[in-house]
Design goal:
This protein is α+β, with helices and mostly antiparallel strands. It has twelve helices and seven strands.
């Protein structure tokens, strides 16, 4: 803060340090920070109230700060909360926030990277490891929640003309890159987790882990898109999903070649791929083309 008195700058720094003093974990539960861990000079400066000494009053600010962060994480990952249960989820959220303290002015940004952290989350004590990751269902759940967060936060984008691909020569199209829309994510589910997420959001937050539905007979793929009226899900065939996923990072020609390696080259596949490309453009899965 330019031009601020030194005493004010010092006070702001101490108050910020007090706020960031994290909760601790005891017997698998979150415990508010001990005021003895707050900066000593700040505790001396804090005035006592009619019912509590200064350090205890500072603890109220600390608790509200951390509860707001954890509540924001819960709202951003409702499906993950449902499968882990609030207790285990809160421990994971605390571990993540301690490792990656918020640095962004946008409160929603605190959850960025949490999906990767949860995939490593191993037990209810809040530890994380590169080995023995959480179950596949929770890994899918956190990926799905992150996809919803991404599309909701997507900025407005220019419209990609539906006829843009038809005017390109075959060689030009093969070497072109389709630019992915930030309002679209491609997700897969091995359990009916998208339906479970819908049900979870329609009810009060569960106090215990919900039962995992039976696994699907085959993995289902979806395109998730943010529209003006809300989120839309488009079912995709396995090969269609593979094509769209490859197009995220590869040229059109390379993505089609990958499809042929997996499914074999025949006229039917070529016609299907052409239809899938046109459908993706029509739905707005791409925001443009780079040649």
């Amino acid at each position: 803060m330019n031009g601020a008195p030194q005493w004010l700058a010092d006070y702001q720094a101490q108050f910020s340090r007090m706020l960031r003093e994290p909760f601790t974990v005891s017997a698998g539960r979150l415990v508010p920070a001990d005021p003895e861990r707050f900066p000593a000079s700040l505790c001396i400066t804090a005035k006592a109230g009619p019912h509590a000494p200064g350090p205890t009053r500072l603890g109220t600010y600390n608790r509200q700060y951390w509860l707001r962060l954890i509540t924001t994480m819960q709202r951003s990952f409702p499906l993950t909360v449902a499968l882990l249960g609030p207790g285990s989820f809160n421990l994971a959220a605390l571990g993540f926030l301690v490792q990656r303290p918020p640095r962004h002015r946008d409160l929603a940004a605190i959850a960025n990277g949490f999906d990767g952290y949860v995939r490593k989350f191993r037990d209810a004590g809040g530890s994380a490891s590169d080995a023995d990751g959480v179950s596949a269902s929770v890994a899918e759940a956190v990926t799905i929640d992150r996809a919803f967060n991404d599309v909701v936060a997507a900025p407005a984008e220019p419209t990609f003309a539906p006829g843009a691909l038809g005017g390109l020569a075959a060689d030009d199209l093969a070497s072109a890159r389709l630019l992915p829309s930030a309002a679209v994510r491609f997700v897969e589910e091995s359990w009916p987790l998208l339906e479970l997420r819908r049900r979870v959001l329609a009810k009060p937050r569960p106090e215990a882990p919900v039962a995992l539905p039976p696994a699907l007979a085959a993995t289902r793929a979806w395109a998730l898109q943010q529209r003006e009226a809300g989120q839309v899900l488009y079912p995709l065939s396995p090969l269609q999903a593979r094509l769209y996923t490859c197009l995220q990072t590869q040229t059109v020609g390379a993505a089609l070649a990958d499809l042929e390696r997996v499914a074999g080259a025949d006229g039917g596949l070529a016609r299907s791929a052409e239809a899938w490309l046109a459908l993706g453009v029509e739905h707005g899965f791409w925001r443009g083309i780079s040649r």
